[in-house]
């Protein structure tokens, strides 16, 4: 591990806390804004294709988010555990739990992706869709979801990389990788959606392929950072094989977070189910509105992730008062 994460750890566990907390948080906020950019770029290009294409994305996203919430809980658990070991100065222990998180979430992503792929049809069939919506939008939403679920390992890979780096206090490297991913997505979207140059016109499915491809590139870059550089936790490849003890820790911390995120996702799914009873134009407008709202809500998630790291490192360093201070400062910044 380089001196940068060590310096970040020292600033989080010693001295004034506000400045290092902000320094930790702003790249995470930027990552969330770039996530919004992902969604908006897809929406803009699909909007040029048709309103039905935007409606398909609107129907697919809540169901995809519901499945991703499961993996999100476990990656958050990994970040917290890495932060605690980093704060305690246990770099080897941090690397060990990072490897366990990476291996376990990798398995979860394959299982969840397979279940999501097989359940796409039944899930969409549960929506009480308007007849026109069922005919014109639901099949396109199914195309998007199946590609998305097939690419789940690539999608989860970036999430776990970002979480592990965050746990050590390095949030800038994931930001650089995220920028690369967004650039690739922006570049691929029109080629795959409209069939530019030698590419076939794939419409909604093309948008999904562009997203999965760009996330896959981000995952490869993240794995290179973890295993090919001295940034982030030092992971021994043998630590990738899940072991009962560490996995139990990850599950105990991750399940409550996964349930919380799944509850939010279920609420969005319920709202989407009601909107699906209206014609395609209403479904498309609903999805566009959600993406604009996310410009406000997602950055707050970045700040909360920074709070997780600050609290975890200070608890690991046996500084509970600073952990409490981090919560108060983070809450103040959110307000």
TrEMBL record:
<dbReference type="InterPro" id="IPR002528">
    <property type="entry name" value="MATE_fam"/>
</dbReference>
<feature type="transmembrane region" description="Helical">
    <location>
        <begin position="21"/>
        <end position="41"/>
    </location>
</feature>
<feature type="transmembrane region" description="Helical">
    <location>
        <begin position="104"/>
        <end position="127"/>
    </location>
</feature>
<feature type="transmembrane region" description="Helical">
    <location>
        <begin position="176"/>
        <end position="199"/>
    </location>
</feature>
<keyword id="KW-0813">Transport</keyword>
<keyword id="KW-1133">Transmembrane helix</keyword>
<protein>
    <submittedName>
        <fullName>MATE family efflux transporter</fullName>
    </submittedName>
</protein>
<feature type="transmembrane region" description="Helical">
    <location>
        <begin position="61"/>
        <end position="83"/>
    </location>
</feature>
<dbReference type="Pfam" id="PF01554">
    <property type="entry name" value="MatE"/>
</dbReference>
<keyword id="KW-0472">Membrane</keyword>
<feature type="transmembrane region" description="Helical">
    <location>
        <begin position="147"/>
        <end position="164"/>
    </location>
</feature>
<keyword id="KW-0812">Transmembrane</keyword>
<dbReference type="InterPro" id="IPR050222">
    <property type="entry name" value="MATE_MdtK"/>
</dbReference>
<feature type="transmembrane region" description="Helical">
    <location>
        <begin position="265"/>
        <end position="288"/>
    </location>
</feature>
């Amino acid at each position: 591990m380089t001196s940068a994460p060590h310096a970040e750890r020292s600033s989080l566990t010693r001295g004034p806390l506000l400045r290092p907390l902000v320094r930790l948080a702003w790249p995470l906020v930027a990552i969330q804004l770039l996530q919004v950019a992902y969604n908006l770029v897809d929406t803009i290009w699909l909007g040029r294709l048709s309103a039905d294409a935007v409606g398909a994305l609107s129907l697919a996203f809540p169901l995809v988010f519901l499945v991703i919430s499961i993996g999100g809980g476990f990656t958050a658990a990994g970040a917290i555990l890495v932060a605690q070991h980093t704060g305690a100065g246990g770099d080897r222990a941090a690397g060990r739990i990072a490897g366990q998180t990476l291996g376990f979430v990798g398995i979860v992503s394959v299982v969840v992706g397979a279940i999501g792929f097989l359940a796409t049809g039944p899930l969409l069939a549960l929506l009480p869709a308007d007849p026109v919506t069922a005919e014109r939008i639901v099949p396109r939403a199914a195309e998007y979801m199946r590609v998305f679920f097939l690419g789940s390992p690539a999608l989860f890979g970036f999430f776990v990389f970002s979480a592990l780096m965050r746990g050590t206090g390095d949030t800038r490297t994931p930001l650089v990788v995220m920028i690369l991913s967004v650039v690739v997505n922006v570049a691929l979207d029109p080629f795959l959606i409209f069939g530019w140059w030698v590419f076939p016109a794939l419409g909604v499915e093309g948008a999904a392929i562009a997203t999965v491809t760009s996330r896959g590139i981000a995952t490869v870059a993240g794995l290179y950072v973890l295993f090919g550089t001295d940034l982030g936790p030092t992971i021994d490849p043998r630590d990738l094989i899940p072991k009962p003890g560490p996995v139990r820790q990850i599950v105990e911390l991750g399940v409550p977070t996964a349930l919380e995120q799944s509850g939010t996702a279920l609420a969005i799914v319920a709202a989407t189910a009601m909107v699906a009873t209206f014609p395609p134009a209403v479904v498309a407008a609903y999805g566009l509105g959600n993406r604009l709202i996310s410009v406000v809500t997602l950055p707050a998630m970045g700040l909360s992730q920074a709070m997780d790291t600050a609290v975890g490192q200070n608890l690991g360093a046996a500084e509970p008062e600073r952990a409490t201070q981090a919560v108060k400062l983070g809450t103040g910044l959110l307000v």
